[in-house]
Amino acid sequence: xxxxxxxxxxxxxxxxxxxxxxxxxxxxxxxxxxxxxxxxxxxxxxxxxxxxxxxxxxxxxxxxxxxxxxxxxxxxxxxxxxxxxxxxxxxxxxxxxxxxxxxxxxxxxxxxxxxxxxxxxxxxxxxxxxxxxxxxxxxxxxxxxxxxxxxxxxxxxxxxxxxxxxxxxxxxxxxxxxxxxxxxxxxxxxxxxxxxxxxxxxxxxxxxxxxxxxxxxxxxxxxxxxxxxxxxxxx
Length: 235
Hints:
Largest sheet: 6 strands, parallel
Oligomer: single chain
Distance between the termini: 33 Å
CATH topology of the largest domain: Rossmann fold
CATH superfamily of the largest domain: HAD superfamily/HAD-like
Strand order of the largest sheet: 5-4-1-6-7-8
């Protein structure tokens, strides 16, 4: 991953793409569902259907433990389950994880244009970094900002600003794409255009239309279409 670069003066065009990891760049749900179900079985519980687990994946380990075990666990038991969950997941990062359909082509298009792309996730770096390595993306990403890279996490804009510093670009030149409300809020607060990834892990209780994103997409290829639309509107 490149080191910090001097931020160049924005030329008024939106050129670079920043992506959330789970549910936007990569379809990690199968490996995370396996992790939760293995933990449930270890604790003497019945596994959950994948369809029930998938919408919760973007909300992290805490939400998944609450899904599987409820939210009334003693604090020490909850902490123990979180650690066991992470230990299992660390050994199953990419057994079934792949990029979402169309994402490979998107990244190739961005790179062919000489533009930059990167990842901003709340996933801790000790999981993010090996995951990106195993997907063959660590050296291609212009930045990888994890949940522990800077002091604050999304929806705080600090990770977004840090990503811009690493890439040497301004927030106004970037689109941030994510599948959770906190993604859209973080991008907006940083001064970026935002897109809600409807192909991601969105639960029945979520309403992306109310997140305030600049657009909503059903497929990664639409990111380029929105980029062109944003730039035309600036002319």
